[in-house]
C-alpha cells in the first residue's frame, strides 16, 4: 500500500492509518489543535511511525496540548496493541499467583480494572478512576495511596531506539510516579502479575480508592494541575490565594477543588495557560506542574530512530 499525500488521510507504507485530526478529541481536557495521527496496530507500523520525530499519545489524561497542535507525528496504539488477553499463562502462573497474556499499551485502564475485578484478580484495583491507557499509566507508574501500576506488572515490552525490548520491573529504576523508562520509548504491551482474590474483596478495595476522589470535579480536566510543594496541598494554597472559581475564557479553577482546572465547553489551551500563570503569580511558593504541556515549556519531542533497527517482531 502506498501513501496518498494528495489527501489529508492516507495509509502508510506498512498500512498504518494516518489522519490529520484535532488532538482535543483524544484528551480528557478536550483542548488541542491538529496533528498527523498515526494509528499503529503492529510492530512494523510502529517502527515506520518512529522513524520520524514523534510523540506517543495515550489516554490524554495528563496533557494540555497547544491550540496550534504539535508539529511531530502523534502515535496512537490501536488494533492488537489496544487489546487484552487476561488468560492466565499456565507456565508462569501457580497457586493464587497469575501471569496474564499480553495487554496492549493502548488498552483503556478503567475497563481493564473493572474486568480484573469481575475475574477476581487483584493488584491493580488501587488505580481505579485513573482515565489513562495502560501504556501511559505504566510509563509514569500512575497510582494512588491504595496502589500503583508496578504492583501488577510481570513483563514489559518497550519500543526503544535500539529495538524492541522485553524487560521485567527489576530491570528498571522505577519509583514514585516514575517507571524509569526514557521519554521516547513506547510501552507497547505488558503481562500482568495478579493475585486470585474474591471479586467482592477487590470491589471493596476499589470502592475505598474511589471514595478518596469524592471531592474531585466531574467535568473535563487533565487532573491535578500542580504537585504539592513540600507536603502542603497545592489546592489549599490556590484556595487561600482566593482563586477558586476564577474563570478565563471557558476554563475555570474548579469550585470543588482548586487544584483542578476544568473546561466549561470550548476552552482553549490559551485559557488554561492564563489560569496556570495566574496561579503561579498569586501563590507565594514555586509550583511544579503535574501535567505535561505539548509542546512543553521545555520541548520534549522524541528523537527519530531508524526503523530498520527493530522492525522484526519479537518471539
Ligand atoms: C480525572 C483524573 C484523575 C486522575 N487521577 C490520577 C491518579 O489518581 N493518579 C495518577 O497517578 N494520575 C492521575 N491522573 C493523571 C493521569 O491519568 C496519569 O498521569 C496517567 O498516567 C496518564 O496516562 P495517559 O495514558 O492518559 O497518558 P497521556 O496523558 O496520553 O500522556 C502522558 C505522558 O505519557 C506518555 N505516554 C502515553 N502513552 C505511552 C506509552 N504507551 N508508552 C510510553 N509513554 C506513553 C506520553 O507521551 C506523555 O508523555 C488523573 C487524571 C485525570 C484526568
Automatic annotation (TrEMBL):
One of its GO terms (biological process) is peptidoglycan biosynthetic process. Its cofactor is FAD. Residues 30-197 form the FAD-binding PCMH-type domain. GO terms for cellular component: cytosol. Pathway: Cell wall biogenesis; peptidoglycan biosynthesis. Its main location: cytoplasm. It catalyses: UDP-N-acetyl-alpha-D-muramate + NADP(+) = UDP-N-acetyl-3-O-(1-carboxyvinyl)-alpha-D-glucosamine + NADPH + H(+). PANTHER family: UDP-N-ACETYLENOLPYRUVOYLGLUCOSAMINE REDUCTASE. Cell wall formation. This is UDP-N-acetylenolpyruvoylglucosamine reductase. The gene is murB.
Amino acid at each position: 500500500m502506498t501513501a496518498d499525500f494528495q489527501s489529508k488521510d492516507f495509509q502508510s507504507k506498512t498500512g498504518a492509518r494516518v489522519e490529520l485530526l484535532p488532538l482535543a478529541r483524544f484528551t480528557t481536557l478536550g483542548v488541542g489543535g491538529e496533528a498527523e495521527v498515526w494509528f499503529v496496530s503492529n510492530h512494523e507500523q510502529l517502527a515506520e511511525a518512529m522513524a520520524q520525530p514523534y510523540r506517543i499519545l495515550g489516554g490524554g489524561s495528563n496533557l494540555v496540548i497547544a491550540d496550534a497542535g504539535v508539529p511531530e507525528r502523534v502515535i496512537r496504539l490501536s488494533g492488537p496493541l489496544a487489546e487484552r488477553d487476561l488468560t492466565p499463562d499456565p507456565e508462569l502462573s501457580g497457586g493464587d499467583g497469575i501471569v496474564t497474556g499480553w495487554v496492549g499499551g493502548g488498552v483503556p485502564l478503567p475497563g481493564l480494572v473493572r474486568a480484573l475485578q469481575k475475574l477476581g484478580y487483584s493488584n491493580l484495583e488501587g488505580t481505579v478512576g485513573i482515565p489513562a491507557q495502560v501504556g501511559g499509566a505504566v510509563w509514569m507508574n500512575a497510582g494512588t495511596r491504595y496502589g500503583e501500576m508496578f504492583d501488577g506488572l510481570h513483563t514489559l515490552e518497550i519500543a526503544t531506539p535500539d529495538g524492541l525490548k522485553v524487560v521485567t520491573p527489576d530491570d528498571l529504576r522505577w519509583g514514585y510516579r516514575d517507571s524509569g523508562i526514557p521519554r521516547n520509548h513506547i510501552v507497547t504491551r505488558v503481562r500482568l502479575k495478579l493475585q486470585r482474590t474474591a471479586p467482592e474483596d477487590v470491589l471493596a478495595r476499589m470502592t475505598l480508592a474511589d471514595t478518596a476522589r469524592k471531592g474531585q470535579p466531574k467535568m473535563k480536566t487533565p487532573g491535578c494541575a500542580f504537585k504539592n510543594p513540600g507536603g502542603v496541598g497545592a489546592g489549599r494554597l490556590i484556595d487561600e490565594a482566593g482563586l477558586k472559581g476564577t474563570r478565563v475564557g471557558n476554563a475555570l479553577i474548579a469550585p470543588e477543588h482548586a487544584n483542578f482546572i476544568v473546561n466549561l465547553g470550548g476552552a482553549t489551551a490559551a485559557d488554561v495557560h492564563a489560569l496556570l500563570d495566574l496561579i503561579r503569580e498569586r501563590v507565594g511558593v514555586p509550583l511544579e506542574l503535574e501535567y505535561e504541556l505539548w509542546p512543553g515549556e521545555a520541548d520534549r519531542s522524541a528523537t527519530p530512530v531508524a526503523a530498520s533497527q527493530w522492525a522484526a517482531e519479537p518471539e
